[in-house]
Design a protein that fits this description.
Length: 132
């Protein structure tokens, strides 16, 4: 009997850690390659591409908007963005791109993609960029 109670308590504890401590959202972003991102952009004319880096003016994916994570621009933009659209988020470093994608998911956005390898993967694949 004591072993059964221990197993039950252990199972409940593990379940709580795995499922009970997660935020109120269940969606997650998807990591995609530069090639998959290019296909996504080509096949979704309404896609919203968000550059969360401070280097937007030095080059960005065509059509991207600048919402630098570090200065709060992304936080300011979130209430004005359509949560039902398809999003592609990228930066120059993984940690910032991941944080940007997670902010969108936490805010209830339905389809969020993160460019694996970030801006450099896009450039390395030979895809066009814009300067501003």
């Amino acid at each position: 009997m004591k072993l059964s109670i221990s197993i039950l308590v252990y199972t409940i504890g593990i379940s709580f850690v795995l499922f009970g401590c997660t935020p109120g959202y269940t969606n997650t972003y998807t990591d995609i390659s530069a090639m998959e991102a290019k296909e996504l952009i080509d096949n979704n004319p309404d896609i919203i591409i968000i550059d969360v880096s401070p280097y937007y003016a030095q080059g960005h994916i065509p059509g991207a908007i600048s919402c630098y994570l570090g200065d709060g621009s992304l936080d300011e933009a979130i209430p004005m963005l359509d949560k039902s659209k398809v999003y592609l988020v990228y930066c120059h470093v993984d940690s910032v791109a991941i944080a940007g994608a997670e902010k969108l998911i936490e805010a209830g956005f339905e389809t969020v993609n993160r460019l694996e390898g970030n801006y450099s993967a896009w450039v390395d694949a030979g895809y066009s960029i814009e300067m501003s």
